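ingest -> fold -> write
write: protein_1
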Amino acid sequence: MHGLNFVSHRTLRRGTTTVASAVLLASTFALGMAAPAAAQDDASIVVVGPIEPDSLDVCESSNQAPGRIVRQNVYETLTEVSAEDGSVMPRLATSWEQIDEKTWRFHLVKNVKFTDGNPLTAEVVAYNLKRDAANPDCGMYGRAFGSLNVTGVPVDETTIDIVSDKPAPILPTNLALMAIASPEMPMETTRQSAGTGPYKITEWSPGKIVIEANPDYWGEQPTIKKVTTVFRGEDAVRAAMVAAGEADLAIDVSPENASNPETDFTYLNSETTFLRFDLRSPPLNDVRVRQAFNYAIDRDAMLGTVVIAGSLKATQLPVEGILGHNSNLEPYPYDPEKARQLLAEAKADGVPVDATIRFIVRAGNFAQVDEFSQAIAAMLQDVGLNINLEIMERSRASQFQGKPFPEDSGPYVQLIMSDNNLGDASFSVFPHYHSGGVQSMLTDSELDAEIVRASGLTGDERRAAYEEIFRKLHEDIVPNVMLFHMLAVNRVGPRLAWRPTIKANSEFDFAKMKLN
């Protein structure tokens, strides 16, 4: 846990760390640990990221830190979704057709091999479906398929029927989340890695992960032959490494350090920040207290100070343009008097509103996360809430984020980021709000039924069903404090002919990048 001094939201201001001052810090890091490969190598690049992943297992490939390294690089998916228009495109599947409302048939690319020599077959895809279902801690199965249970039924060596227990109208889109690994991968999470992608992992040591071109790749060989990813927690250091030519791409640079319009690119990164309440514990099991949290946050004061100007105030997890987003919802206004009134009403009814509430934040979650969290804590304290801010390393914070949730933890709220760039609300709704969702604190049978019903609908009926779910969550249940649809900044060096899109939040398809 970090010891932090809270910042008054009335004095929010830009930080003072600059890229220039960080050059010395970057040099200090280089002296204290092995320096990354030179960015000047004609066929290789260096990427510097904020958080080193705990696992590179295929079932973690939809998560941000590992996904930026392995997704579509080491492990590939059957389908992928276009960042330009949201269309579903072939990857390891060449085509597909719907047999009935619960069955889709997929035809695989032929003569594809994993880097361990095993062939890609329908049996392997069926094994991956079974493996992902057996690894709920990874979250990919639940996130990809929601309330569906799916089974792979091989038709022939390169044709597979994927059968669901309920209607699955968008299954080709669902499969864009699920990556495929060799059948040699054991059922449990492993440090082994064998995919079909254009790269393979050649080094994984503390602070450094290297992937190199797979000479036996079934598709076109990448121009960039080697990608070395190193990790630095200070975003000014990451920015300085690109400025100094020590790296070609820096992930998550703060506005203070994004000083060069020639190299610093802002993009809507599909992440939504929100606070999730521990609904098991008083006082957070009282809706008036949860509403008070919402009224206590001055979102406008945060924009351009601790969050990038242009970020959008959120009312729900998906951004506008995702099917099911309800554009009629309005953010909670900043109304500290209303917050105090709600807390007083709850206290009069015996709710222990003075209890200490833990505010759990994952260190390095995004640029300026410390300042962001301090500002929120100060606002909550201003209305009389007793907030204890705890900034934790990734592994510890993750214990509070997904099931099984820790017992006897005391009441807590957690700052979470959730991304959805696949065009449909189902990828957000089930994992966060269905009682079976891996990150859901809710146990609402009526809401569960609505979520399951929505997942089987299509077109306008599907859109309307999800819009009503988001209305109910925002206005009636209030399981979250919705904060912002985030923007992010990546610094791209002059050697790399690439610009970030919404996919850059969890995927860098290095084979599609070019060097200048």
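write: protein_2
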Amino acid sequence: MSYKILKTHTLSNIFAALILGTFFLGSCSEKPEDIRKRPNILLLMSDNHSWNHLSCYGDPVVKTPYIDSLAKRGLRFTNAYCAAPSCTPARASMLTGMDIWKLGEGANLWGTISSDFQVYTDLLEESGYLVGHQGKGWGPGNYEAGGWERNPAGNKFDRFQDFLDQREEEQPFTYWFSSRNPHRPYADNATKGTIDLSAIEVPTYLPDNDSVRMDMADYYAEIQSFDSEVGEFLETLKASGEMENTIIIVCSDNGWQMPRGLANLYTFGTKIPMVISMPERSSGARVINDFINLSDLAPTFLELAGLQIPKEMTAKSLVNILESDKSGTIEPERDFMVTGRERHAFVRNGGAGYGGRSIVTKDFLYIRNYEPEQWPAGDPPLYGDVDAHMLHYPSPTKEYMLRYRDNEHAKELFQLAFAKRPAEELFDLRTDPDQLNNVVDQEPYQNTRKMLADRLEAYLSKTGDPRVVGGEMKWMGAKYFMDRDRHPAPSINAQEVLGLKASYSYIEDSVKQEK
């Protein structure tokens, strides 16, 4: 049922559904004391935040005490991924519990998504939940173009307390806070001075110099700001008296906004932090190695609420893992993850995308690039799928790599981040965790390459990916709802330092390509 239909319901209709749902759950229990209240759901999401940059994940520099406290009383996932390394499709996948190739135009950034898709927020609202969100929610994009009357994330609020003030007594709720941190541009943080630049661990796919370290320090400072936001939500929740009956999820939407991160199928773009605390139903201080996806949250929330999971959802509920008292591997079949991407920003002539799919296991990452003739990072000289796609605000690491692309110390890293890529990539994560050496053509890896390629193909076939089974790929040429990106204008500083023009255009043939 859509939100448009829901608006015709009276409050009594909603609570009748709630009572019936409670009765149904109770009828399945032999003992009255087994009946549980439906839990509240509080989702706290950072923006463009790589999985390993929290102190509870072992980062020696960033300090995140509030998130660490949740990890101590809950679960920390070591193999959590998003469905796509791009904000809009990753968030759409989370709402629908579906892979991005099932979502039509919803597979793209700055697109739309059809209101024909069921989202967990509407399903929970129809069953009696109070539903709200703060910040981005689904997006960026144009939800009205898809037939929605509001953001698919639910009604929008500026403050968590304002949302709580609308609750009826005993009414369960779900609230999604989308932080702006640590999305670029980074603030000129005063706290940056408290971060020890010498202690920062620069990944080997980035140059190690003061410019990059300062850039990472700004990024860390914004993660610490996100942690403070988490603390504020926890205080408000505690004051409401709902802490124990609330499942709290802290995660990111995709990887960090650095070269080879955001908009890439390397793990720096797809692997995310995920901490879940559920005091009334889950033992704490557990570390889980099962491979899970952000999209798994939708069926999880529905199962916790006692609702039927739609058959269209390709994701799988995490309730069994949450309610287990074990650490390590809980469900052995969760030993791989498939992710994908289509068009990220409008950064190629005519608005062309860069389709790809990947499969990752404990030991290997295999990537299939469907348009190897395209520039994966966007057309030169802006390479707009990296960092500030128009270079309209500071991106020190990207700017450094562009400026020194021909220097010996940066040339190879520049090629890895910005140059064209082969149709297949394979990385041995046991010896090459930073994914620098593509071994897809090396003889010792041919059995592994075939095994992973076959496993990926089987999953894509099972889930109906048009890239494999045929059919319409609605994301191809779909409308992009941010007109200024068609005419990128680099900042004055970028023009001067990198020798760029004042403006560029990618609109050739885009009008006839877009639907």
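write: annotation protein_2
The two ends are 27 Å apart (CA to CA).
DSSP finds 16 helices and 13 strands in the chain.
pipeline exit 0
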